[in-house]
Amino acid sequence: MLHGLVRTPLVFTVEELRRFPSVSKIYFLECSGNPVYRKPYGKTASDLVGLVSCVEWTGVPLKTLLDEVGLEAGAKWVIAEGADAAAMTRSIPIEKCLEDALVVYSQNGERLRPEQGYPVRLLLPGFEGNMSVKWLRRLRVADAPVHSREETSKYTDPMPDGKARQFTFYMEAKSIITRPSGGQKIASPGFVEITGIAWSGHGRIRRVEVSVDGGQTWRDAALQDPVLSRALTRFRFPWSWQGQAAVIQSRATDETGYVQPTFPELLAVRGENAFYHNNSVQPWRVAANGEVTNANN
């Protein structure tokens, strides 16, 4: 159902949705708690940032549906409600709805699976994952956010001054080295190809730099095509490891010029009570015997 500040409220069946012109786009989807701020930190790359995926989504642009029903004056937000037991409800700025939001019914060329929101879900590229409401049943156009449980007691960011940041929608630029990374071991000195992934909710990754000396110096990594907007981007960096202890890490810069911060830089701004939106640089410690561990532990 699409109702509220619209000229013609409508109820769409799935088959009716599938008759609209469709698009297929590759986007990442990430939990805003990927990872959290507090110790103990994860040991592996999967422990730390495993709550992210990147797939091809197929569906109808939300703008198409809003054009169909007609927005009225004062339409500023769209309230999305899921059919799960929690009735997940999020307020979405109308600008995002008219930009690239999708109502999707297929994933990687097949119909959505039940755990992915079958029969339809919302997809908000670059926004925190909980806002891409699964099992979508209702969209209401409104002049103000609804201030639901998920945007008051949940998914807000406590700040050092006692206030909380609200509506922190975008997932900011992030990268991580996945090989070699925590739990792995370099077999012997010599050539090592450092590889990893980078992404940003604000668009394309423009640059990834790698440091093999704990952040003292940085060199550009090669980005692997295709470099898509709001999608995971693979990077590669050649390293000649001499068998010495080292700390390796990566940092991403997106097309807005935003540079991924270090963990101390992020804590200085957010404070130790923060929970969501940790996009800090992840360092890995390489021991002389080649074993790799989380340098933050």
> Judging by the overall fold, what is the CATH architecture of the largest domain?
Alpha-Beta Complex
The average pLDDT value, as a whole number, equals 96
Largest sheet: 5 strands, antiparallel
Q: What is the rounded Rg?
A: 21 Å
Question: What secondary-structure arrangement, pairings included, does this model have?
Answer:
Elements: E1 2-4, H1 14-17, E2 23-30, H2 45-49, E3 52-61, H3 62-69, E4 77-82, E5 89-93, H4 94-99, E6 102-107, E7 110-111, E8 121-123, E9 136-142, E10 157-158, E11 164-165, E12 174-179, E13 190-199, E14 205-211, E15 219-220, E16 222-223, E17 233-241, E18 246-254, H5 263-270, E19 284-286, E20 292-294
Parallel strand pairs: 1-9
Antiparallel strand pairs: 2-3, 3-6, 4-5, 4-9, 6-7, 6-8, 10-11, 12-13, 13-17, 14-15, 14-18, 16-17, 18-19, 19-20
Question: Could you characterize what this model shows?
Answer:
- Helix content is 10%, strand content 35%.
- The mean pLDDT is 96.
- The strands form five sheets. Strands 2, 3, 6, 7 and 8 form a five-stranded antiparallel beta sheet that branches.
- The chain has two domains: 2-163, Sulfite Oxidase, Chain A, domain 2, CATH 3.90.420.10; 174-294, Immunoglobulin-like (Sandwich), CATH 2.60.40.
- By secondary structure, the protein is mainly beta.
- The N and C termini lie far apart (49 Å).
- It is elongated and about 70 Å long.
